[in-house]
C-alpha cells in the first residue's frame, strides 16, 4: 500500500460492477485489493488507511468515511441492497463513519459509527443502527438494526437489544487508547511499498 497519487484513474477491475462517484483525500491509503462498487457517492477522508480485501458498497446509500480511520482486512462497509418496507418501498440508510475510528478485521458496518469508536474483530453494526462517539463493540458483537449505543458506552456482548447483552459507560478514557492504536497501525502500514486501489468509478482528490 502507498499514499494515493495526485491524479487517480478509473479502473475496470470489476467489469460487471457499477461505478460510484468517489472522492479520496490525497493522504488516504487504499489497498489495491479493495473492492468498491455501487451507484451512490463515496468519500474517504484524510490519512485514512483501508487494508487489503476490504469491500465498500454504495448500492443502497452513500458511504462517508472520516479522517484518520483504520479499516482492517476483510471488512465490509455499506449495504449491497436497499432496505424494503411496506411504508417505504426503498428506504435507504446512509453509512457514516466518523474520524479516528478503528475497524478490526472481518467487521460489517451498515449503520453509523461515531468518532473514536473501536469495532473489534467480527463485530457488526446493522442497518440504521447508530454507535456514538468513543464507544467499543467487542469481538463478534452485534448492534442490531435500528439500535443505538450512546456516547462512551461499551457493548458487553451478544446482540444489542437481546436479553443477553448490555452496555457499560466508560467515559472518554478510550480516546488515548484509540489514538495510540491508530497511530501505531498507520505508521507500520505507511512504511510498506505497494500500489493504490483500483477503483471502479470516477474519483477525485481533495486538498
Automatic annotation (TrEMBL):
One of its GO terms (molecular function) is dynein complex binding. This is Dynactin subunit 6. Residues 1-25 are annotated as: Disordered. Residues 1-10 have a biased composition (Low complexity). Keywords: Cytoplasm, Cytoskeleton. InterPro entries: DCTN6, Trimer_LpxA-like_sf. Belongs to the dynactin subunits 5/6 family. Dynactin subunit 6 subfamily. Gene3D superfamilies: Hexapeptide repeat proteins. It is found in: Cytoplasm, Cytoskeleton. Part of the dynactin complex that activates the molecular motor dynein for ultra-processive transport along microtubules. The keyword Oxidoreductase does not apply. One of its GO terms (biological process) is mitotic spindle organization. One of its GO terms (cellular component) is dynactin complex.
Amino acid at each position: 500500500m502507498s499514499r494515493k497519487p495526485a491524479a487517480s484513474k478509473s479502473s475496470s477491475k470489476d467489469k460487471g460492477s457499477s461505478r460510484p462517484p468517489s472522492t479520496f483525500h490525497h493522504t488516504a491509503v487504499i489497498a489495491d485489493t479493495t473492492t468498491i462498487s455501487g451507484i451512490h457517492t463515496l468519500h474517504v477522508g484524510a490519512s485514512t488507511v483501508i487494508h487489503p480485501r476490504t469491500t465498500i458498497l454504495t448500492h443502497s446509500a452513500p458511504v462517508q468515511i472520516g479522517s484518520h480511520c483504520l479499516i482492517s482486512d476483510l471488512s465490509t462497509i455499506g449495504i449491497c441492497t436497499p432496505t424494503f418496507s411496506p411504508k417505504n418501498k426503498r428506504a435507504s440508510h446512509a453509512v457514516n463513519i466518523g474520524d479516528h475510528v478503528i475497524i478490526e478485521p472481518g467487521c460489517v458496518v451498515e449503520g453509523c459509527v461515531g468518532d473514536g469508536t473501536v469495532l473489534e474483530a467480527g463485530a457488526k453494526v446493522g442497518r440504521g443502527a447508530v454507535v456514538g462517539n468513543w464507544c467499543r463493540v467487542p469481538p463478534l458483537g452485534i448492534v442490531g438494526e435500528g439500535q443505538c449505543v450512546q456516547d462512551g458506552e461499551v457493548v458487553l456482548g451478544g446482540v444489542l437489544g437481546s436479553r443477553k447483552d448490555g452496555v457499560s459507560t466508560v467515559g472518554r478514557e478510550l480516546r488515548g487508547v484509540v489514538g495510540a492504536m491508530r497511530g501505531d497501525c498507520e505508521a507500520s502500514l505507511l512504511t510498506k511499498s505497494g500500489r493504490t486501489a483500483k477503483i471502479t468509478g470516477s474519483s477525485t482528490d481533495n486538498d
